[in-house]
Design brief:
- The structure is a single chain.
- The chain is an alpha/beta fold.
- The chain has a single domain, classed as P-loop containing nucleotide triphosphate hydrolases (Rossmann fold).
- Helices cover 45% and strands 14% of the residues.
- The longest helix is centred in the N-terminal third of the chain and has 25 residues.
- The protein is globular.
- The protein starts with 5 loop residues before the first helix and ends in a 20-residue tail after the last strand.
- The relative contact order is 0.19.
Length: 207
């Protein structure tokens, strides 16, 4: 009688299971044939919304695609991501930092509204530029939350974007209208954050 090696039996079971899983997966993927520009929303109270958007920018640039980024909150702040992209990849990435900081810092409603509108105008210019493949509206949801921009106006403009353009919109408290209009929505959930333990924003992590 030949002894059965338990390891061989386990490997055979795994192979059969993976073959079945691959067949099912291939069947699902065969039906996914459409390619088009997406409306992508990163929202939620957790850290990582803008970070994920900048990651998408790098991914797109890695394929030779051009990216336009408008920052709706950050303005004069020096951030690592902006510095490296502006200095080393200016041919593939256009960045407009047009924010005035958070409302509780600026304390000037009229100027905040004007800045938000100016940032949106810049985003619309990028969206109209056919050489740009992806437009990132960083922290636009903050402007929407505080009434500096009208959600319906933004959604209407997104509905008219050219079919192959990806648009990414970040910031907590994304309005329902924007969530409904989006193709992909990710909510970052806060579980732990060092700020609550007295740790300040740090270079290379927060900016």
């Amino acid at each position: 009688m030949t002894d059965i090696n338990p390891a061989d039996d386990l490997s055979a079971q795994h192979k059969a299971k993976m073959e079945k899983k691959k067949a099912a997966r291939d069947k699902i993927m065969a039906g996914k044939t459409e390619a088009r520009g997406l409306i992508i929303v990163h929202t939620g109270k957790g850290k990582g919304k803008s970070t994920a958007a900048w990651g998408l920018a790098l991914r797109a640039m890695g394929h030779g695609k051009r990216v336009g980024i408008v920052q709706f909150v950050k303005g004069e702040w020096e951030t690592g991501e902006r510095t490296v992209l502006e200095e080393r990849f200016s041919d593939l990435c256009q960045i407009r930092a047009l924010g005035r900081g958070f409302s509780w810092e600026s304390q000037d409603l009229e100027k905040d509204i004007a800045a938000a509108q100016g940032a949106w105008d810049a985003a619309m210019e990028m969206m109209a530029d056919e050489s740009i493949d992806m437009v990132i509206c960083d922290e636009i949801n903050i402007a929407l939350r505080y009434g500096h921009l009208e959600p319906k106006k933004i959604v209407a403009a997104l509905a008219k974007k050219r079919p192959d353009l990806h648009v990414v919109l970040t910031g907590r408290n994304a309005p329902d209208e924007l969530v409904d209009a989006a193709d992909l929505v990710t909510e970052m959930t806060l579980i732990k954050h060092p700020f609550r333990s007295g740790v300040k924003a740090q270079i290379g992590v927060e900016f």
